[in-house]
Give the backbone structure.
Amino acid sequence: MTRLLIAASMALTIMVSGCTQKPAEETAKKPEAAKVEDVSAARPMVEPGGISMEKQHDTMRIFSAEWEKARKAAKAGKTKEEAESLAKMREASGELNKFMLHKNAKNREEFLKKANEFRSLVMDVEKSSGSGKSLKEVAPEIDKACNGCHQAFR
């Protein structure tokens, strides 16, 4: 019984101090696997006529930031700022046709269709900023376009 208590006490001390002993087979030196050079970082991830993944992510950040600005401007009645943000979104949407798709790449035509629909929505609201079709009316459609594309292709 005393030995059992001493062993338990030692095990507890080792666990608490963070010191654990590994079995000899785990500490034995294992042969190193052959090193394979990672060349994926050296070449840009683009397809013919495409853009880098970094540029794609930059474009999506533009959409996100400018969409937020446009919504705030519309809410505050600042039509000039709203139009400026929508113009930046429209300009950035020109890059969509160059995107590499994260998934469902075989459905590129569907992606391009969705990209054109998104671009058209942004252009419609941009043209009528301050009059006609309001951002508030079209916002759900633009949100739906963004989310639908992300679900299908990202």
About this structure: The mean pLDDT is 75.
